[in-house]
Amino acid sequence: MKNIRRIAAGVLAAAAVLTPVAAHADTPYAQASAEVDMDGSLIEGSHVTDVWHPYRGVYCVAVDESVDLTGPVAIHATPIGEYSTPRSLSVELNPSACGKQRLDTIAVYSQVGFRVRADSAFYLTVS
Asked: Tell me, what's the pLDDT at 30?
């Protein structure tokens, strides 16, 4: 039983060490990518023209004309940081939550429970 606990502890430690490296991985095949702080400021981005934070738990990311959001596209949002409760992120294309509907905008919604919005920092990739 002690060996199983040691192996499990080793796996968890390895995952904790490797997770930050994977989170900062380069995204060479992405059309756009962004690292957004919980206050809505853009920390780092590629092919992103604007980011704003209109409401609690709602972030809007505008991409430049080189990003094709009309065809098949994969959009992935990953929360970053440590929080007292787990965060769940979802995305929406051409959202009304970001003001008038724009074809170049992606909304990222962050919540802690069923429809309870909460701010969080995140990575966004558009492939």
From this structure: 87
